[in-house]
Amino acid sequence: MDFSDLDILDEFFGTGDDSNPLMMLIWILPIILFVFYGQRIQLIITSGDIKKKLGQLEQFRNDSRSALIEYIKKDLAVKDDITQKLDRIFDYFTIMPIDIDPNGIIPKIHRLIRSREDTTRKQIQLLLSEIDTMEITKIQNLLEIVTYLQLLHRIVRHLFLTAKKQNNYPLILPLQMMLPFIMEQAEALKDAVPAFKLGQPIGDGIGPLVVGEMMLDTKKQKAEFETVYSESKFEGRKLILLKAEGPFATVGRPAEAAEFLVEKYKPDIIVMIDAALKLEGEDSGTVSQGFGAAIGGIGTDRFKIEELATKFDIPIFSIVVKQSVKEAITLMKKEIANQTENVKSQVHEMITDNTVNGQIVLVIGVGNTLGVSQ
Amino acid sequence: MFNKNEIMESYTLERCGSCEKELKRKFSKGDFVFKIVSKCPSCQGQVIITKIFADTLIP
After folding, report:
1. Which range is least confidently modeled, A122-136, A142-156, A254-268, A299-313?
2. H or E stretch at A290
3. How would you class A368 by CB atoms within 10 Å of its CB: exposed for 0-12, middle for 13-18, buried for 19 or more?
4. Closest partner CB to A371 (pick from B2, B32, B55)
5. Can you give the pTM of this predicted structure?
6. Which end of chain A has fewer CB atoms at under 10 Å, N or C?
7. Are A312 and A175 in contact (CB under 8 A)?
8. Does pLDDT of A348 surpass 70?
9. Do A373 and B34 touch (CB under 8 A)?
10. How many beta carbons lie within 10 A of that of residue A310, not counting itself?
């Protein structure tokens, strides 16, 4: 038998003839499928990825919660079962003031934040009697970490379940885009737990580290709650050095302290040292100089310092040390710690360049001073 | 960013205020920067902790 003339492909699929109905079905079916069910297919694929990340978020939240409870039970030797009370604190929410009329909103936010901080501190003191300030501040920070991770998990879960419930693919797109950034923050928070438990300096503490070193061998005085200042001299200028009180896990109250010191000393310039988020491609530990108040947070401290500078016509200079979100809240990296001397010499240069003999300079080390004394 | 393959370890750097001799050791609980640690074995000067940082683990 001669098989040379038998072209199975041609016979079956009609490759030589465009009108073969089977061939048409093979091409048209997927097109119809994707036209009508394309979004649902994409939703199923995306959902799988988001579900995995959601599981990771829940794990981060559970791990940090367990780490905090274990720390209180083992390290602080608390025998009472405080799990239920802690779970209630993790659930605390803050209702931001109405912003339809934004005039005067900053003092409202400032008061709200302070009230939340004060209440949480009192709750910790009530829960764990006989613990020192160091432990109170550490637990306060650890509570913030668990609360924030819980909030992230809840928001992501809400957006994901809403999109699934509505079978709405476009609704899941913003979540898919934002999720890598959310996960970066969540991972950083999860990794921050050991440093807070051990009381180690974090990347954000570079400002207090520089100012703390300048404050050595000077008389430290209380400027505000958990905030200290001291007087020093440098090349004929009077320096007023301000930072949060270390080695506690606190940022202090820099705005209120600055208000008090500006009223008292009437400084000619303000120099602020802080950690700043680096842009992708920038090296960790890069030091930059600039103008304006270098201070993070919700914005109320920056607002107060800016108001102060405007009222008394004081120029503000800033020095920042660049780092990632993770580096800012985990144990300080060598590259960042090694910049201390460089930043100090830049502060001195900034002072000599912008002031003359006999003038007064307010130097503020902004950031969490955990593990950094003065 | 941290390299995922790198193993980070926490170190404490102590320095004598007089002879400026430095000692790098592993972090131990209770350490904090500017803590007065001890007297310098060589010059009897005051030794303080100057840095606590994360570095890649030295094998």
Report:
1. A122-136
2. strand A287-291
3. buried
4. B32
5. 0.89
6. N
7. no
8. yes
9. yes
10. 10
The 10s digit of each residue's pLDDT in A44-90 is 888 999 999 999 999 999 999 999 999 999 888 887 888 999 999 99
In chain A, residues with a C-beta closer than 8 Å to the C-beta of B34 are 212-213, 216, 246, 372-374
Nearest-angstrom CA–CA distance, B17 and A216? 12
**CATH no. of A203-365:** 3.40.50.1470
Chain B residue with minimal CA distance to A285? B1
| ipTM confidence score | 0.90
For residue A77, give both structure tokens.
């030797």
What is the residue-averaged pLDDT of chain A? 93
What is the pairing mode between strands A237-244 and A227-234?
A: antiparallel
Q: What are the tens digits of pLDDT across the range A328-344?
A: 999 999 999 999 999 99
Answer for the pair A369, A227: CB distance below 8 angstroms, yes or no.
no
Distance from CA of A283 to the nearest CA of B (A): 9
Q: How far is A216 from chain B (nearest CA, A)?
A: 8
Q: Report residue B31: phi and psi, to 5°.
A: -70, 140
Using DSSP's 3-state secondary structure scheme, residue A236 falls into coil
Domain range summary for chain B, segments of one domain joined by +: 8-56
Confidence bin at A262 (pLDDT 50/70/90): very high
pLDDT at residue A246 is higher than 80: yes
What is the C-alpha separation between A47 and A162, in angstroms, rounded? 12
| Nearest chain B CA: its distance from A201 CA (Å) | 7
For B50, name the nearest residue in chain A, comparing CA atoms only. Answer: A213
User: CA–CA separation, A365 vs A212, rounded Å?
Assistant: 8
Where do the structural domains in chain A lie, given as residue ranges? 39-198, 203-365
Architecture of the structural domain at B8-56 = 2-Layer Sandwich (3.30)
Q: Is A336 on the interface with B (CB under 8 A)?
A: yes
